[in-house]
Amino acid sequence: MARKKKPNDLPARTGPAKKSSGGGSPKPPLTHDDIMQAAVRVDPELRRRSELLWDDRTLPTRGPKPGLTPDDVVNAAIQLADADGLAAVTMHAVAAALGFTTMALYRYFPNKEALYDAIVDAGIGRPPSLPAPREDWRTEVTTWAHAKRAVLCARPWLAELPFVAAPHGPNWLSWLEAITDSLSTTGLGAAEIGQMLSVIDGYTRGASDTAISLARARARGTSEAEWAAAVGADLGRAIGDPRFPKFAGIITAPSDERPRTLEESFDFGLQRVLDGIEIYVRSVTA
Amino acid sequence: MARKKKPNDLPARTGPAKKSSGGGSPKPPLTHDDIMQAAVRVDPELRRRSELLWDDRTLPTRGPKPGLTPDDVVNAAIQLADADGLAAVTMHAVAAALGFTTMALYRYFPNKEALYDAIVDAGIGRPPSLPAPREDWRTEVTTWAHAKRAVLCARPWLAELPFVAAPHGPNWLSWLEAITDSLSTTGLGAAEIGQMLSVIDGYTRGASDTAISLARARARGTSEAEWAAAVGADLGRAIGDPRFPKFAGIITAPSDERPRTLEESFDFGLQRVLDGIEIYVRSVTA
DNA sequence: GGCTATTAGTGTACAATGTACGCAGTACGA
DNA sequence: TCGTACTGCGTACATTGTACACTAATAGCC
Predict the structure, then answer these.
(1) Which is deepest, A185, B121, B132, B225, by most CB within 10 Å?
(2) Measured between CA atoms, how close is B182 to chain A, in angstroms?
(3) Residue B187 to residues A75, B270, B275, B282: CA-CA distances in angstroms?
(4) What is the pTM of this model?
């Protein structure tokens, strides 16, 4: 049962860093035992969904042979999403693509959410394998971030799903493992590496949004010029509006000053982020 | 009409920074004239939606007096979203909350997407006003980022909407104006300020995701402990799994090393990002 | 004041979607 | 061989967004 929250007064002036505002919360100690013990109390549906991602379903010995595998369903769903966006992934469409009826899918996934979990993990794929011989952490992290961004652009429907909150499968963890491995050579402590991981991953996801929007438009058949026109017309409302003088200056900045591609822009920001991390690394390990 | 794309080979090893992979695209010159000229070619539906956010609808002189205003509808929708999440925002529910029938809403918004546009802009509200006397850019930007994060946590349903791509209203632009204003004192050029804006905003949105997930769970009535248990059990699968040795080390790091709240963690990352930007500022303006 | 154009809200209808339920056939194990 | 467990299917239903036509109200014009 959801509880009522206070009505919608617009969130006004929020104080600076030190105040403990919305979302701040004591992080519990996550030791192995605690986790295993706490897991018992997890919402059974979430647990079920998580297990579907991890437990290799041992197919039962009795009864008719299944005509499909979960992977078949996932692949069909991903093809639909790649071709026509997430909205094209309906149970009916997926089943039809496989030559089955809608309800047959429910023998493989208990509901659509569970299917979504699966296509997120399959769709995100695996990170680039770490180079041998290993490179310095900045180079490796740069590769990782660009790869992750490329995946999100190649499959823009991934960002439509709440894929940070959802149950995480092996592929998802493999991305975390990869960047953790790269950051391990910094000499930072485990908790600090976790922090840096959040920073890089947060930047990567957040800063990919514009490119994802373009990729989504492109997948819908919109040309790049049309997309740029729409975005430009939208932000262009700032021009001449007395409320947005400074931002209008950004919009109308000479085009030869700005980066040529969205990816270059992403990389520029990434290098600033890594600069900041590098300072910290040096200050700690000096 | 959407076109078929190539089927789903998992995105493998993506090359490092320099290759122009998915999402990279020449950014068109956005001068005032170009924008106004290009805007003509924008998808009419998008244009319509954008206009609904900007044009003060002059109410017609003939006919019965409207029993509602668009703002009434928006407020009702926001209350529902705040209370029970975005899924609770159905045309029927919004209308019922106002004491009208479903179809009455279509006199105010042509479709649900347009209503979504409106609740995004209203829901995001206005940024904190800049202090007088002005402070240094780092302090101001820090305030801005924490405020934005607080809004996203207070209204976790905002992040469920593709609110980067959607038509942007005046409130949205006012956030951009505020941070542009703060960054203007760095002495950077307009295009560079645009870059830094993307970096900070990207980090802020991306790094808020965990807290948003918590806020969403809380809004659903899940306790903080339950949420932490679910997340812990999920990521805890890395523990003992030979595929994720390094990441398991992060998960099991002693709890006294890690930041106490999610907000502290956010701020730590933000300061790294700002460190990186500050280096750049000094290198350019030296 | 009456006519008329215009608009607000309603009622009905419909297509799409997720999914509960029960049935029919199938294949293994006792 | 028979029962049991399982697969796939057909049907049914609630929910949702929205098209369309209708009624009623309001203001300007004669």
Answers:
(1) B121
(2) 10
(3) 51, 21, 16, 10
(4) 0.87
Distance (Å) from CA B55 to C1' C5?
25
- Smallest CA-to-CA distance from B203 within B174, B236, B168, B179 is with B179
pLDDT tens, position by position, A101-137: 999 999 999 999 999 999 999 999 999 999 999 999 9
Closest CA to A85 of B151, B2, B181: B2
- The tens digit of pLDDT for each residue in A27-42 reads 444 444 555 566 666 7
- Residue of B255, B221, B215 whose CA lies nearest to A35: B255
CB contacts of A35 in chain B (<8 Å) are: 232-233, 236, 239, 251
pLDDT tens for B140-173 read 999 999 999 999 999 999 999 977 777 899 999 9
Q: Do B23 and A146 touch (CB under 8 A)?
A: no
**Looking at residue A129, what DSSP letter applies?**
P
| A26 CB-contact burial (10 Å; exposed 0-12 / middle 13-18 / buried 19+) | exposed
**Count of A-B CB contacts under 8 Å:** 501
CB-CB: which of B15, B219, B269 is closest to A202? B269
Structure-token match 């909407």, residue found: B161
Residues of B in contact with A28 (CB under 8 A): 225, 228, 232, 255
Collapse the DSSP code of A121 into the 3-class scheme (helix H, G, I; strand E, B; otherwise coil) and give the result: helix
Q: Which amino acid is at A38?
A: A
Distance from chain centroid for Cα B139: 21
With CB atoms and an 8 Å threshold, state whether A269 touches B216: no
Instruction: Give the CA-to-C1' distance from B96 to C6 in angstroms.
Output: 27
B211 chain-A contacts, CB cut-off 8 A: 22-24
Between residue 44 and residue 73 of chain B, the positions with Cβ below 7 Å from nucleic chain D are: 61-65
- CA–CA separation, B166 vs B157, rounded Å? 15
Q: Is the Cβ–Cβ distance between B63 and B128 less than 8 Å?
A: no
Residue B57 has phi, psi (to 5 degrees) of -65, 110
The confidence band for B46, taking pLDDT boundaries of 50, 70 and 90, is confident
Q: Which residue has the tokens 């109390």?
A: A41
Q: Are B38 and A163 in contact (CB under 8 A)?
A: no
Instruction: For residue range A210-235, list pLDDT tens digits in order.
Output: 999 999 888 888 888 888 888 888 89
Reference B77, options B123, B124, B127; nearest CA is B123
